[in-house]
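Supplementary notes for students who missed Thursday's class. We covered one full example, reproduced here. Read the sequence, then the structure, then the short commentary at the end.
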Amino acid sequence: MNVRRRLISGTAVAAVTALGLGTLSACSSDSAAAANTDKFDVVASFYPMAFLAEQIGGDHVNVTSLTEPGQEPHDLEISAKQTAALQESDAVLYLKDLQPSVDDAVAQSEIKTKIDAASLTTLEKHGNEVGGHAAEHDDHENEELSGLDPHIWLDPVRYSQVAEGVGKAFEKADPDHAADYRANTAALVKKLGALNTQFKDGLANTRTKVFVTTHAAFGYLAERYGLTEEAINGLDPESEPSAARVKELEKMAKADGVTTVFYETLVSDKTAKTIASDAKLKTDVLDPIEGITKKSRGTDYFSVQEANLKALKTALGTK
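Structure (token representation):
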């Protein structure tokens, strides 16, 4: 991700945090609260990991997220207070190579149960960019080093594989409640299977298979359902897209029947609206579900994914 593009102001984060917008129902927004409760204390790196921990752990876990609601997870810098809480928790659930400060804190901690979601499924290289600079689609330091797309949670099948691995890790770490973790995991996997079917059926017969985003987060989702994501990365949201880039997009959009430029909830929509206006296209939200706020089209992972499906069906057109 273009770090300049994806920064969210500290003031905005503080405002969102103060209002308590989108805080997980069973998840404290203060990660220091993770330490020393009478439950199985789990620190999650950001929303998709916290959601898994909540769904699988149920009443037996105390889940806290290192990333506040509304904060862009890629830009997270862990505080000393959060690091201390991490050390005193029973488990940490994170996605390696997404948040460097989390990786560093986990590596240095003596926490017994470290669950890396990236190790529970398969990661691939993605980066489909209008203009052909695929290898440069993401200038995030760690992601460049690994070369792998971390956005596995947007594919219900891969997210389900991660859920199964998390369930097994919880069973091993907290055997007294293993039966409940097993049952909760099975229920979650079933729901994710149903969501996969919704996407598969909903996107099976569309007029076009190409969609345009300002953030290359949907590679796994596109691959799963036979779509092509064209991502306009490397553009600062405060600057105007070049005439050559817009012309290229116009040509691609016309050839592939593209109607819509998608933007996301946690960053500026200026780039998407500028390009869409010049190319005579519509704009809409496609949410990478990196956090839930009042701006989200849904209250949890499932409702936001259903909103994403609806937006894709509208943009791609159903036959």
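Commentary. The first helix runs from residue 3 to 6. The two ends are 34 Å apart (CA to CA). If anything here is unclear, bring it to office hours.
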